[in-house]
């Protein structure tokens, strides 16, 4: 059973439960930090699931919150133990966006908007290689290869025979027109995109240039939703040196509303597929 544990999701659930216990006790993170002689930032990181949590941390926090039910304490201790296990992505070494991969691995659905490139879950190997090498020019060839291998492994969520990831992606026409690698490579990528868009659990929409200004001009983002109601949705925004994860209901709602505007302004699935196919033909000339 341990091999099926997603440590990222375990940390999130554990952090949410610890926050709930703190709030029931009527304590602030600062007050808890003072009691345990640790920094307030540590308490915050434990609660938002961004930091590994030890069984000792859980024991100490349960002591502060005066949790007397040993079943609750034992359950939280087991979650802490599970959260320190390694996910499949750890076998690839240090991956800068490992938290995101952990979330994506457990997500039931993913809504993505990308104004510049084809989303990673729909990229061919050759496109991914050219894209990563171009976007990260100082990255060693071996590291580029590792990133590509991780990206292709992530794509298994799309092709899984049972419970595949429900993917809805909206992209700007610029992502189709930007020549990554060469024209032949782009033709293969767009033909692959057409093929993937025909899967029943994958929807691809394109916002054409003539749509003008639209809500997505602020940049790329993704919204992850999970099968367990206890796991709140997450908005993921990728950065150059650090990534941003938004989990507050108000933030998720704002990005969800913006995504609905993008869907409404984009071509529908059939029109988008036809545009992608036409541009692929242009690359063949």
Can you offer a commentary on this structure?
Residues 18-73 form the HTH cro/C1-type domain. GO terms for molecular function: DNA binding. This is Helix-turn-helix domain-containing protein. It comes from Streptomyces guryensis. The mean pLDDT is 87. This protein has helices spanning 7-25, 29-36, 40-47, 55-64, 70-83, 98-106, 125-135, 141-154, 156-159, 173-177, 183-196, 249-265, 269-284; strands at 109-114, 166-172, 202-207, 221-225, 234-237, 244-246. By secondary structure, it is α/β, with parallel strands linked by helices. Helix content is 52%, strand content 11%.
Quick structural overview:
With 285 residues, the chain is an alpha/beta fold. It has 13 helices and 6 strands.
Low-confidence parts: none
Secondary structure tally, helices: 13
**Helix fraction?**
40-55%
Spatially, the strands of the biggest sheet line up as 3-2-1-4-5-6
**What percent strand?**
5-15%
Write down how many β-strands occur, each being a DSSP E stretch of 2 or more residues.
6
Largest sheet: 6 strands, mixed
> SSE string, helix = H, strand = E?
HHHHHHEHHHEHHEEEEHH
Average pLDDT, all residues: 87
Structural class from helices and strands?
Answer: alpha/beta
Q: Estimate the global geometry from the Cα principal axes.
A: elongated
Q: Work out the radius of gyration.
A: 21 Å
First and last CA, distance: 53 Å
């Amino acid at each position: 059973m341990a091999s099926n544990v997603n440590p990222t999701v375990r940390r999130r659930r554990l952090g949410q439960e610890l926050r709930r216990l703190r709030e029931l006790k009527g304590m602030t993170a600062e007050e808890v930090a003072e009691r345990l002689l640790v920094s307030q930032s540590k308490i915050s990181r434990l609660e938002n699931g961004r930091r590994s949590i030890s069984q000792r941390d859980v024991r100490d926090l349960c002591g502060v919150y005066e949790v007397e039910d040993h079943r609750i304490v034992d359950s939280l201790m087991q979650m802490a133990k599970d959260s320190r296990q390694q996910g499949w992505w750890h076998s690839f070494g240090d991956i800068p966006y490992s938290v995101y991969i952990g979330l994506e691995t457990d997500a039931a659905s993913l809504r993505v908007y990308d104004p510049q490139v084809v989303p990673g879950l729909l990229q061919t190997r050759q496109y991914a290689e050219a894209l990563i090498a171009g976007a990260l020019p100082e990255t060693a060839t071996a590291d580029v290869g590792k990133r590509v291998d991780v990206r292709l492994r992530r794509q298994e969520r799309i092709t899984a025979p049972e419970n595949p990831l429900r993917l809805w992606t909206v992209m700007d026409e610029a992502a189709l027109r930007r020549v990554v690698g060469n024209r032949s490579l782009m033709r293969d990528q767009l033909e692959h995109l057409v093929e993937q868009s025909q899967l029943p659990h994958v929807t691809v929409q394109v916002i054409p240039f003539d749509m003008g200004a639209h809500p997505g001009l602020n940049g790329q983002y993704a919204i992850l939703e999970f099968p367990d109601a206890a796991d709140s949705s997450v908005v993921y925004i990728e950065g150059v040196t650090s990534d941003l994860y938004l989990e507050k209901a108000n933030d998720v709602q704002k990005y969800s509303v913006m995504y609905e505007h993008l869907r409404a302004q984009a071509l529908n699935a059939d029109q988008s597929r036809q545009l992608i196919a036409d541009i692929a033909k242009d690359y063949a000339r």
